[in-house]
Amino acid sequence: AYKKIAENEIKGCEYAIEAIKKPLNVKIQHLGNTVNAAYTEASPFPVGDSLLLYSSLRSDTVITLDEGKKQGYLFRLYKSKRYDGGWDDGELLPPVVNADNVNVANGSFSPDLKKFYFTQCKENEKGKLICAIYRSEYKNGKWKNKEKLNELINMPDYTSTHPAIAPYKKGRNILYFVSD
């Protein structure tokens, strides 16, 4: 097992050496303080070219784990709309997505923009953060019917997170996600 891990790490290093020789021509642009706080944004998901969903703790200072627990900081999902001069202030997604007393992150729409997948995380009795993937329907401009995905995705005592939906065969979709 260690040999396979080492071989994979070597391949990663070899790829990095080759990639450095042919850098990509990209432009990185800061979205401004209406979207970004100092340390706490994650999981951006663009919806077209005029809407951005992202997670944030909404803090302008570094938050340590212990301090964050004491202060009750929680990740929440926000949306920002693009306008001519940049992005507007982030607006919280509604409570059907941003439930009380849980961290919420990693939002992703289905290709038809009718279903929204996201992660909710909370500590179990042993202090381990356990995340599960949920889905909400977006109908007539409103979020509805939040449901936790089944135990094939959200296995008890394990974390499932970072959902991404992609078109699959014959009009079906496929869910990609991360789990421990």
Helix content: 10-25%
Q: How do the helices and strands follow one another from N- to C-terminus?
A: HEEHEEEEEEEEE
Report the structural category.
alpha+beta
> How big is the Rg?
19 Å
Kindly report the average pLDDT value.
87
* Distance separating the two termini: 17 Å
- Give the total of beta strands: 11
Gross morphology is globular
Number of helices: 2
Q: Which spans of ≥5 residues are poorly predicted at pLDDT below 50?
A: none
In terms of DSSP E residues, the strand content is 35-45%
Largest sheet: 5 strands, antiparallel
Summarize the helices and strands and which ones pair or pack.
Elements: H1 2-21, E1 41-47, E2 51-56, H2 65-71, E3 76-83, E4 86-87, E5 91-92, E6 103-109, E7 115-123, E8 129-139, E9 142-148, E10 160-167, E11 173-179
Antiparallel strand pairs: 1-2, 2-3, 3-4, 3-5, 6-7, 7-8, 8-9, 10-11
